[in-house]
Amino acid sequence: MIDLYYWPTPNGWKLSIMLEETGLPYKLIPVDIGRGKQFEPEFLAISPNNRIPAIVDHDPAGGGAPISVFESGAILLYLAEKTGQFMPSDLRGRYEVTQWLMWQMAGLAPMSGQAGHFTHYAPEKIPYAIERYTKEVRRLYGVMDKRLADRTYLAGEYSIADIASYPWAMPHDRYGISADEFPNVKRWLAAVRARPAVERGLAVGNELRNPTKPLDDEAKRWLFGKKPEA
What we know:
- The chain is an alpha+beta fold.
- The protein folds into 2 domains: 2-85 and 201-223, Glutaredoxin; 91-194, Glutathione S-transferase Yfyf (Class Pi), Chain A, domain 2 (Up-down Bundle), CATH 1.20.1050.
- It is built from 9 helices and 4 strands, in the order E-H-E-H-E-E-H-H-H-H-H-H-H.
- A 4-stranded mixed sheet has the order 2-1-3-4, covered by helices on one side.
- Strand 1 (2-6), helix 1 (10-22) and strand 2 (26-30) form a beta-alpha-beta unit.
């Protein structure tokens, strides 16, 4: 059994999708990031960066004490190794997937997050920031579109690179980007979304949040600058 510390966000969806894809049994443990639950000592013992998601694997390979893992990319690698799924076994294949996983972690996610923040959540509109991050997200979509021109998925076969990238590419309209601008990305989005495990993973924890409800002041304090007290 795996404990999944989770909130329904793009990074959270990576793990709910992966667990649904692999069929591993898991227990959902909600961490309400809009109410500061990510700063509670019990969670910090598992995820010292006070970010979801995190897991505790009570049945690690080889036995022994439970293993905790934080950072979504590291968790995807851990689960791929544990199950032997969605990561090639050959050297070249592994590094094809790893490169695109790191691309998502270092580029697509943080740039999309900043574009979303300055467009939708910043207390004042800063045109320079909005333009800078939106342009970078559009550039990254262009990189992905070229990559997908001659293959169905980012690293050839469906892999953790796709599982990591899809939740961040899915809300392209939030950044004013039409999928029609990037036909290969549009096709890829449809192919990933058509997987039943992806649909199930995206539905995990739907009852925990209301995407149409604006963030209240308390949530903004926790998400955008509230620091845990010493």
